[in-house]
Amino acid sequence: MTHTTITNAHLSATIAHHGAELVSLRDPNGAELMTDADPAFWPKHAPILFPVVGVTNGGVIRVDACEYPMPKHGFARDHAFEVVEAGPSHVTFALIDSAETRIHYPFAFRLELAFRLTDATLDIEARIINPAAAELPASFGFHPAFAWPLPYGAPRADHGIVFSADEPDALRTIAPDGTIAPETARSPLTGRTLALADDLFVPDALVWDHIRSDSVTYGAGEGPSLRIDFPETPMLGIWTKVFPSDATGGVEGPGARFVCVEPWHGIADPSGYTGEYRDKPGVFTVAPGEAKHIAMRVTLVP
C-alpha cells in the first residue's frame, strides 16, 4: 500500500493513498498518537466516511424511488485516492465518481482530503465538490482512532475526554442492526468530562446527534493531551471495540488500545427508515458548482 508522510518540527503524519486514511500521527520524539490497529479488535486507523455515516436500513439508499446498495460508512474508505498536490508538510488527495461508485451512489462528485501540519496541529479538510447541474446530497464523517492510553505514562483508566461546552442532551442509542433506535440514553458525562471506561461501550458507540461543543480534549492528568476541533460537524460519536461478557454484563478482558473521536455531518438511518436518501437525518446538499468544506484539527497540547 502506498503512503505519503508529511512532517514539521512538531509532528509527523502518514496517510495511506487507499482511502486517504491517516494511519500514523507521531510527536517530535516519534511517539505514536494513534491506534496500533490490532486486528483482534479493529484493523483501521481513521477511515473517511462518505457518502453515508453508519449503516442504512436494509443496506440501501433510495434515490428517486430506486434502491442502491450502500456499505456501512460508505465506499470512500475502500477506494484509492489520487495525490493532486504535495509538499513537505501538506498533501491533498482526490476521489472522483466512476462507474463503480455510481453502482452505490448515482451522483457526480469530487471528494478532496487535504492534510496540513502547522506547528503542533494537523489540519484535515474535506471538500465535497459538486460538478453537476443538480444538487448533490451527501453525508461525511471523520473516524480517527487515538491511542488509549496515550504514550506518556498515565494508566489507561486515568484518561478522559473534556467537552468544550455543556452537553445536557440525552444520547441516541444504536439498535442491533446498527440503525438509530427510537430510545435515548442518559448522558454519561460528569460536568463536561467523560471518564473513559470499557463498560461505556458495551451497547455500542456513544452518539450525540446535536452536539453543542466544537472541540474536545483527550488525555490524562497533567500530561500531554490532544485537542480535537470540529467546527463544521453537528454530530459526534465516541467509540472503542469491546467484547461484552454475557455472564457479568460488563466486558470480557481488556478493551482495545484506542478510542475513536468521530465528528460527523451525518448519522445512521433511523430504525425502519424507508424514505429518500436526501431526506434522511444528517444529509446536506451541495449546490451545482459549489463545495462543502468540513474540517477537523488535531493539536498536541504539551
Characterise the protein shown here.
The chain is about 0% helix and about 40% strand. The chain has a single domain (about 5-300), classed as Distorted Sandwich (Beta-galactosidase, Chain A, domain 5), CATH 2.70.98.10. The protein is globular. It is built from one helix and 23 strands. With about 300 residues, it is mainly beta.
Number of β-strand runs: 23
Count of domain modules: 1
Q: Can you name the CATH architecture?
A: Distorted Sandwich
Rg measurement, Å: 19 Å
Strand-and-helix sequence, N→C?
EEEEEEEHEEEEEEEEEEEEEEEE
Low-confidence stretches: none
Q: Looking across the biggest beta sheet, what order are the strands in?
A: 6-7-8-9-23-19-18-13-16
Indicate the proportion of strand residues: 35-45%
Give the terminus-to-terminus CA distance: 33 Å
* Mass-distribution shape: globular
How many helical stretches?
1
CATH class: Mainly Beta
Mean pLDDT: 96
Task: Provide key terms for this protein.
302 residues; mainly beta; Beta-galactosidase, Chain A, domain 5; nine-stranded antiparallel sheet; five-stranded antiparallel sheet; 1 helix; 23 strands; 1% helix
Short overview:
This protein has one helix and 23 strands. It has 302 residues and is an all-beta fold. The strands form six sheets. It has a nine-stranded antiparallel beta sheet, with no helix packed on it. Strands 11, 12, 17, 20 and 21 form a five-stranded antiparallel beta sheet that branches. A three-stranded antiparallel beta sheet has the order 1-2-3, with no helix packed on it.
